[in-house]
Amino acid sequence: MKKIASFVMISSFVFNCWISTNVVFSQNKKDKKLKETVVKKDGDVSGQQAQQDVPVIDSIKVKINKLGPNVNSPYDEYAPNISADGLVLFFTSKRPFTEKEKAKNKPSKEKIYISKRNSPNEEWGPAIPLSDSINIPTKNVSNIAISNDGQRLLIYFDDKGNGEIYESYLRGNEWSSPKSLGDPINTVYHESSASFSPDGKTIYFISNRKGGKGGRDIWVSTQKDNGQWTEPKNLSELNTSEDEEAVYIHPDGKTLYFSSKGYKGLGGYDIYVSRFENGKWQPPVNMGPPINTPGDDYFLVINADGTLGYMASSGGGENRDIYEVVFEKKKALVDLLKGVVKDADTQQFLEAQIVSKIMPNNEEYGKYTSNKSTGEYLAALPGGKQYQVIWSAPDYAPYDQDFDLSNLTEYKEEILNIELFKKDTFDRYMNISGYVTDANGQPIKQITVILKAKDGTLEKQTLTADNGYFIFKRVPRNKEYDIIVNYNADYTVRGNVLDLYNKRGIKDQKIHDQITDDAGSYQFKKELDGLEKYLIPFNKDNLANAVQFDDATFQKFLAKYGNYQHPDLSFKVQVGAYENPQNFGIKYKKQFEKLDKLENLRLEDNLTRFNLYSNIPTFNQAIARRNEARQLDPRDAFITIYFKGQRMLISKEILKALTN
Q: Is 150 helix (H, G, I), strand (E, B) or coil?
């Protein structure tokens, strides 16, 4: 989160402040006399300010926008939480929940609601309450935190008056019944707000248990492989003898936001930020106005790229609402991976386990889950390291991909839709892909790329995309292949993957007798001497230029071109040519239709040709079909050639190629 680092650590830097309204209100619901502070353009704050004992950002350049009626209501809304991509919003509301409450317009106990949108530029959709398995009508239920992937929800229950942290998992479209995190997270003392680290394995939470620095403190615990939490440690370098509250760890894993009364700030609770650098948390910095006011300010959460935050405020009224905070700063140093996971054959969505590892030590970093109903997943990878991410599901071959974020300089969001193959399919097939560029490295788009087995069989053909990319999917294993690019210029083909997944099995596959090197590059066959080079249109002017093969030359022709294939080249077997098509007769039709349907074609010489219907890919296959036709009627069956749908002749120029 590069920009955040720049402003939180340099307190003397002054930002110009611009907000959609020039009044920011206290959000302390216990404060009967609502306080307000007017934020001026120069960043000055009216009203008395206490002397600071930590650095304060004089003002942050933001816009603060109150969310619309799809989220806010005439009742209390607060405690916002967002998914890492900023497209799912959880919050707590006291709007009427039961039918009785709705009929009387009576506020409810705390309940959790969710709102979604498809992009950060869209309005939030209508708020929907979570199911009764979470929103127990007789209890106060508040959301505390959502994991970066949106699949784990931490919930606050006022359990027997002491308050505890519960957890629920999203399985498809349903949230599981909440379960207490138990000992050692929950105690007989009060546990309130909490936040997951981006790897999902560390929890920061607030508790007033014994052993802290005083009042409510920030505590941290890590989840072990068996799912148990380690004994919480007091984050003593940030805690004070007064209360801390509303802790939130950003998806970059290095930036911690929290509220505190223990530092001399602008009011009651102020929001502070600290960065984890050089193995320790740096001294906190007060976020200053307009984020902080003379009132109580807390519950600030920020999306992965660091441009949008959400907080609650009373806005000068009787009830609190959710506000969006738009930061004008550089984006965080995070690579946010998102997409869907599917079965490669059925295209059904899969609930996949996604594990990220720090390379080269193969140290596990985080675990995530794709939603079984939508296939959607989300994983945040902080910059500065190399990662390998593995997608897997029971009975499926895993897929992994490497991400080198060592030199990440800006926020990055990648959409990766993953298709997993059943293990037996994986054992039988591979994928081959690459890029075609010219001598200057510029992509060559919309050019035909052919995958041909060494025996001459055309396996696949495709066109390159605008960036020169091509891919052949589900290519049978245990064969040797040539990749052919028919292009009359210098070019380079750089391979990307020579397997269904991750280059495993490369040693058993050959591309033009060469194996890919460590950089993923290999040689491709450049075939400029294809049969199409010697074809001329079928017309009376070209008849004299058409080749007439003797037996020896014809055998050379078959040796070189008998199995040759090109996506625009095909062969047919002509079984009749008549000036009057009626002379072909029903008898002949019935004879040849035993082999194939018939088509007729009238050319410029006014003769109607009758052909076996099928397009035949090679000359050798056409010979076999012609011989079948001659067994039915030996008088009139021979091979014709078509290129791009036009009937062609072979010119005499081919003789030079066959004699060289």
A: coil
